C-alpha cells in the first residue's frame, strides 16, 4: 500500500482499489475513477498514499449502547455490495437508533459511481423532506 509510485502508477493503483470496493453488480467505470483521482491529486497537490485510514482508531466501532439516546432523525444507508462494511452493520444502526430510516441502494458497494447518485440523492432528499428539515421545493443555501 505504501510503496512509492510515480503519479500515473499511483492513479492506477487507486483505480484498482476502487474497482475492488465497487462491488460486482454495478459496472465499474475505470475512467470515471481515474478522472476523480486526478482531481483529488490536483486539489491536494500530492499523489502519495495517505495513511489516514491505516491510522484510524477502530475502538470507536465497539460503541453502541449510547446510540439509543440519539434523538436526531437518522438516515442509514446500506450498500449490499460493500466488501468492507457488511449490511449487518447498517441493520444494527437502524435497529439501535430510535429515529432511523434504513434505505438500501441496490448494487452499491463502497464507492459512489454515477450510477448510484440518483437513488442516493433521492434517499437523502426524501429523508430531509420527511423530517421537516426542508419543505419540498425549498432551496438550501450552502
UniProtKB/TrEMBL annotation:
Q: Which Pfam families match?
A: Abhydrolase_4
In this chain the Peptidase S33 tripeptidyl aminopeptidase-like C-terminal domain maps to: 69-112
The name this protein goes by in its record: 10-carbomethoxy-13-deoxycarminomycin esterase
- Organism placement in taxonomy: Bacteria, Pseudomonadati, Myxococcota, Myxococcia, Myxococcales
Amino acid at each position: 500500500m505504501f510503496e512509492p509510485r510515480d503519479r500515473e502508477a499511483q492513479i492506477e493503483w487507486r483505480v484498482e482499489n476502487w474497482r475492488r470496493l465497487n462491488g460486482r453488480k454495478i459496472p465499474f467505470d475505470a475512467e470515471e475513477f481515474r478522472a476523480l483521482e486526478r482531481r483529488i491529486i490536483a486539489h491536494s497537490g500530492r499523489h502519495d498514499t495517505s495513511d489516514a485510514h491505516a491510522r484510524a482508531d477502530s475502538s470507536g466501532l465497539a460503541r453502541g449502547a449510547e446510540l439509543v439516546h440519539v434523538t436526531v432523525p437518522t438516515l442509514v444507508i446500506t450498500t449490499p455490495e460493500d466488501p468492507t462494511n457488511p449490511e449487518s452493520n447498517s441493520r444494527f444502526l437502524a435497529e439501535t437508533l430510535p429515529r432511523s430510516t434504513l434505505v438500501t441502494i441496490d448494487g452499491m458497494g463502497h464507492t459512489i459511481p454515477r450510477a448510484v447518485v440518483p437513488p442516493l440523492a433521492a434517499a437523502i432528499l426524501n429523508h430531509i423532506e420527511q423530517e421537516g428539515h426542508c419543505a419540498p421545493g425549498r432551496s438550501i443555501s450552502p
